[in-house]
């Protein structure tokens, strides 16, 4: 029973890491393309911070629970990516409609 709780906890850690990593990427791209005076510094700094946070999170999982829980954490990380991409999706305009709302 204790192993199930460690798997759930490592998956939640992975979800959090994935949401922070990819949510931070989404924020960086939006901010860097719209209102940053030095986008290169923003992109480089964001990449370093997000990568260090993800590596430290995975390292924490390894040291706390062992190598077998890293796979569960990685699955949570990928699920975090899916949640962020769904939450930040921009609706697409239909290609069949013109700007006036009439079909061609």
Q: What features would you describe in this structure?
A:
- This protein is an all-alpha fold.
- The chain has one domain.
- 75% of the residues lie in helices and 0% in strands.
- The chain has 3 helices and no strands.
- Helix 1 runs antiparallel to helix 2 and helix 1 runs parallel beside helix 3.
- The protein is flat, with a radius of gyration of 19 Å.
- The mean pLDDT is 89.
Please outline what is shown here.
This protein is mostly helical and 104 residues long. The chain has 3 helices and no strands. Helices cover 75% and strands 0% of the residues.
SSE layout and pairing:
Elements: H1 2-34, H2 39-65, H3 70-87
Helix pairs in contact: 1-2, 1-3
Structural class: mainly alpha
How many β-strand stretches?
0
What's the main sheet like?
A: none
Shape: flat
Structure characteristics:
104 residues; mainly alpha
